[in-house]
């Protein structure tokens, strides 16, 4: 009989390097990790595939699923009219298959998920300070001043919420951060984490 999997929530402000950390973790860890594929109403970018990067849904499809309670969490991002969400079915299928399912989601999404999976492994990744975060975002060169201010305002709120997470990791060096998170997750092997309350 397949052992029930574990749910891992990784959050942190934009610019903290979460996506790079998760990608490297998936490549390097010996654990049966899988990244939960989110749903979105945005259009696919060149090279993206439905079901690989995202489940690309029309606004009507997304809204129907939202009304039917099919999301663990969902939200409209940065007021641009684009919705993102985590489908319950995607998470439960991975867990039932014995996978350690990673959700790379924001703080509000994490708090919603914890209502169903209170024993999820929660990790907050950040660069150590708001000053360092602003430097990284500016170095990207992809943000207008308005967009940068919006991201920093959201980031400040998220940093205030990091106490909701069981583990806090400062991402200074990618290799060290990935190694630190992998060691942390290895400690959870053999622990029984119950399935959702729903």
Radius of gyration: 17 Å
Distance between the termini: 22 Å
Provide a count of the helices.
Answer: 7
Count of structural domains: 1
Q: Main β-sheet, in a few words?
A: 5 strands, parallel
Helix content: 25-40%
| Mean pLDDT reading | 91
Q: Could you say what the CATH architecture is?
A: 3-Layer(aba) Sandwich
Instruction: Choose one word for the global shape.
Output: globular
**What name is given to the CATH topology?**
Rossmann fold
CATH-wise, what's the superfamily?
Answer: P-loop containing nucleotide triphosphate hydrolases
How many β-strand runs?
9
Residue runs with pLDDT of under 50 for 5 or more positions: 194-198
| Helix and strand run | EHEEEHEEHEHEHHEH
Beta content: 15-25%
Task: Please give the CATH class.
Answer: Alpha Beta
Q: How do the strands of the widest beta sheet line up side by side?
A: 2-7-1-8-9
| Helix/strand class | alpha/beta
Structural notes for this entry:
This protein has 198 residues and is an alpha/beta fold. It has seven helices and nine strands. 39% of the residues lie in helices and 21% in strands. Strands 2-7-1-8-9 form a five-stranded parallel β-sheet, sandwiched between helices. A hairpin with a 4-residue loop joins strand 5 and strand 6. Helix 1 crosses helix 7 and helix 5 packs antiparallel against helix 6. The radius of gyration is 17 Å and the shape is globular. The two termini are 22 Å apart. The C terminus is likely disordered.
